[in-house]
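User: I'm preparing a small set of examples for a lab meeting where we compare how different chains pack in three dimensions. I only have the primary sequence for this one, and I'd like the structure in token form so I can line it up with the others. Please keep the answer compact; I'll paste it straight into my notes.
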Amino acid sequence: MKQTKQVVNVFLLVTLCLAGLASGAESGASEAGGGFDWRAFLAPFHTVTLHLPIGFVLMAVILEGYHFLRPSIQLRRAIGVVLIFSALSAVVVVMLGIFRAEGGGYEPETLEEHRWFGIAVGGVTVIAALVHLAIFRKVPGKLPLSFYRFLLITDMVLLSIAGHGGGNLTHGSKYLFENAPDWVQKWADSSKKDEATTGLASSGTYGDLIQPIFEAKCYQCHGPEKQKGDYRMDTVEGLFTAGESELDPIVKGNAVESYLVESITVPDDHDIAMPPDGKDRLTPEETLAIMRWIWDGAKTE
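Assistant: Understood. Below is the structure token output for the 301-residue chain.
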């Protein structure tokens, strides 16, 4: 009982510290007139830490399966330790994820879905750890044991859904099948048609040449799931609407004045270079094709 209370106190302490950091950073920034933003600093660490609860929960499930075949007290204690780390890391990842979401640049509906599945993962992981501590202080009955194992299975399902949603936000909805065989890609495309692309030509100069370039090199950050810099390229309206830069991305008939052309032609280490460092830049042929398309009037019909 004493051990359970100690672990509960640790959970509460971690949660309260992170919540206090969040509210303190927000109020501190407003009082200082835009001072150092701890939320913005910590937000990218969501990507670094999100694999920790995945690994810990998976490890707990594997150990639980092995314990089912070969029960031992030592293994049961090890599972308890793994679940404690699962719960602690899940709380941290959820809080960092909330910070990350505040940065914007993501499709709201997909982001909201990912947020709630992530919170559900954190909650179920903490509950599973506490239930394990509570019921295994003595030989558990069948009902508590079944409930505990149900929580583990539910946690794995939620983790899979939340992880896939995070992948969609980061890499786009087609990232799972982009290197799949042709028949798999055709099946995936036919099973999920994106209504947001209506209005873009499927044939002609744009549909045959320009749109495939944008889809391969740009939609990952400026597509239906994610809009970095508030700029979206998979719709006609979004393609010609300025984002955070407030500069016209495409000036029909004038590639020189188009911010899009500037961003794809500056050196890789430039702040506005697109795609950014670490992602495949456009080839010279692709860049020239986009420039010719803009000089010719940037037609999407």
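A couple of notes for your slides: The chain has two domains: 2-171, 188-295. Residues 188-295 form one domain.

User: Perfect, thanks.
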